[in-house]
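Handout, page 2. Input:
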Amino acid sequence: MNELFPYKPRKYQKEIIEIVENCLKNKENLVLEAPAGTGKTICVLTPCISFAKENDMGIVYLTRTNSQQKQAIVELKRLAEKIDIKAVGIQGKTNMCLLIENIPSLRDKKISNDELSKICSARKKRSMEALKGKREWNRCLFFENFMLTKDALNFDGIFSAEEILEYCRKNGICAYEMNKLFVKDAEVVIAPYIYIFDEFLREKFIVWYSYPFEKTILIIDEAHNLPEFCRELLSFSLSLNTIRHAINEADEYGVRDKDVLFLLKTMENIFELLQEEIDFSETDDALLADKKLEEELAKEGIDKDYLQEIADKMIIYGEVVADIKESKNLLPRSFIRSVGNFFIKWLD
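Output:
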């Protein structure tokens, strides 16, 4: 029995640990299914921690929900009673951003990662200029405080994302930047699925994380959720409501491009027509027949090349709208950009 195991072993736990140990030694993948309450988390973490320590490897522990992260943190802290472990839980910007908490015009909005990234990028640039002595408005004081204190931040032990957030809330420091900083020194990182299975976020994670993937043990908690998660991750949608918001946005912000306005109005007409023809689910979703949207657009003289050209222009106009909103301390959301992004993905 692995000497790190912090509990009196129950039935089958010794067998689970031995199976995991053998798979690690033989570089084999393992799919483990066991009833709730078996102690799967600790039975997997114990041999993985031992093997990682012996072979100078890192561990990435993926979960779908925040509550699953908490369970992994609890078990790691029990293991840390017998061996030194540096571990950290990470979450996305939308869960870690203190700036959003403190701006009323943004706090109550359902903000997307893209929108928050835009706010964050703009404010960090202004904050960096302010730190050089320039007079700037609409900065992020949390980021500035992080830059001023990061060399004094001590990472020694095991921290959940919630613990980091609470510390940063008390000290006025950017929790997301502190989270990233701790990932660089962590032996174990507990992260949401999306950090590995989304291509863009995976590339960012690789920059933060100190171990190459070939020197990493990957643990996926509740892996039966992966097919549904990946379907959601790779799916995209467009609603009539978004199109109507885009039409109103074009009017409000003076977008006069005839092609953009023509496509938006055409899409509104198509969606209104389809509403009468299609049976929608209880959640107001519907799958169109193959080529249906393409055929409807073709009736209006819109082919794929023309659509690509308009979609590119929509994204440019949308970025301008988002920049204007961000400068006014408003959520940098653009419905024109959302429609453009939908067509870019659809045409890909």
